[in-house]
Amino acid sequence: MKIACFVEAYNFIVKSERSALMKFKSTAETMGHEFEFIYKNDISKIAEYDALFIRATTDPSSSAYIVSRLAEQSGLKVIDDPHSIRTCSNKAILHDLFYKNNIPSPKSILFHGDYSRETLDSIFITLGLPVIIKTPYTRFSSHVEKASDETQFIEISKHLLRKAKVLVLQEYVQSDFDWRVGILRNEIIYLCKYCIPDGGWKVRSKINGRNVWGDTIALSRDSISPGLKELSIKLSKCVGNGLYGLDVKEINDEYKVIEINDNPSIYDGYEDTVDGDIYEKIINALVS
Amino acid sequence: MIIVSEDEDEGDSNPFLFLGQPVHDSVLNINHDYRYLRMGYYVSAHAETFGVDVTPNCTEIMDAYRNPLLIEKARRHGLRTNNYRLITSARSEIDAPAVLFAVNPFTNNSMKVVDSGSKLPGMIKRMSMGARFPVSLHPLTGEVLEIIQIFGESTNEETSEFAKKFYKIFNIPICKLIVQIDDGGVLLNHCEPALKKEVKWDIVHDKVRKIKQSV
């Protein structure tokens, strides 16, 4: 089989990401398949391949969406498929998805910029303080802010609403780490803790003016608790049959889903440290 | 069927109210702008997440508003297009005159008509934002027209049959189409949001009334 891997130049900058991409290539070739990196100039050639694996950042506005949709229409196996991209890339849509499917998650409200006294009171009574403010298109902890009081809330939300039609307001849930559950075709393929760096409140925090990432601690996928496993698969099935990374908080033995991502990070020496067969599993999903 | 419209006289609900409620019935979403991250898109996405039928759905929206997807779908359904190419930099084999559209997340109303080959490299560099995003290049073979398509009707008589076919294929209630007219008829080049003031709302009201009567 001939697999296209859609990438952009930035995917090769960080050594661990570059190395993971090369592992995908060598794994596919060892399994008897062709594996070619393709770029946005190659989009129109997509029908020449049997499968598409996207590693460039996905978003419905990106070139990755175009290649995904063209590949789907040409009958290729596709990871990430267009539906998964559209659903997971938008936190306002995830808000609806969690509500519709009774997925336990921090309390959240969609906000369009109504600053009436009644609305503000309702927000703070429902969510408490501090409150998390997210744009729908947040990625890698960007465009996610925390407001400690009403003044800060108004200032931050007005700033973010300059570019977004809607914001997701969320109850703040404090934790030392987020579970990252890697799922492929509704099966767990890896499990990690994405730690919150000291002095921060999200996985990538600004500390003393610098962006700092927390540590990644990989654990055996077999060690996942039954509760987390059940919740992760339930949510994954609500989106589709692709490759996803779920971010989940654990509070007093209860789980609350923060988000489900398509196109999850897979870096050599991070997500693959314990369950090293994730490369093989993903290639298998593309060719079977 | 719930009619969700930005036009207050028209809808059973407006987009802001609609997004705050669960959805249990099929939805007709009327908006002049269905672009991703705009209110028109969110209405369709909200309905879809609740598992109801919606016109237009998100796949249809994205297929219409992303130029390469538009052209490929048009071709598959037999709607006339010309040989577009996706490029990020100018090469010697690219000829003018041409019509160019930016394929990036930020630009609307991006059409550029380039008559001279010497202007192409600079234009492509600007429109691709320094080769970061593709540019869709269409040969210029006829007269370029912008038309407003409303439920299959066109603001231009010459393109009325074409608008009917477009609506049947793409299911977008309101949009602006950029076409070329040559000896063979109408060629599709691009689809983008209409400006609110460009929409003939009396046609919209009439169409919606008929749809309501038929359900």
CATH class of the largest domain in chain A: Alpha Beta
Number of strands of chain A: 15
What is the mean predicted local confidence, pLDDT of chain A? Answer: 95
Helix content of chain B: 25-40%
The residue fraction in helices of chain A comes out at 25-40%
Return the string of H and E elements of chain A. Answer: EHEEHEHHEHEEHEEEEEEHEEH
> Largest chain-chain contact?
A-B, 32 and 33 residues
Class derived from helix and strand content of chain B = alpha+beta
What is the strand content of chain A?
Answer: 25-35%
Strand residues, percent of chain B? 15-25%
Whole-Å distance between the termini of chain A?
10 Å
Widest β-sheet, arrangement of strands of chain A:
13-10-9-14-15
| CATH homologous superfamily (4th level) name of the largest domain in chain A | ATP-grasp fold, B domain
Q: Gap between N and C termini of chain B, in Å?
A: 7 Å
Spatial strand sequence of the major β-sheet of chain B: 4-7-5-6
Comma- or semicolon-separated keywords:
heterodimer, A: 288 residues, alpha+beta, Rossmann fold, Dna Ligase, domain 1, D-amino Acid Aminotransferase, Chain A, domain 1, 3 domains, five-stranded antiparallel sheet, four-stranded parallel sheet, 15 strands, B: 215 residues, four-stranded antiparallel sheet, 25% strand, globular
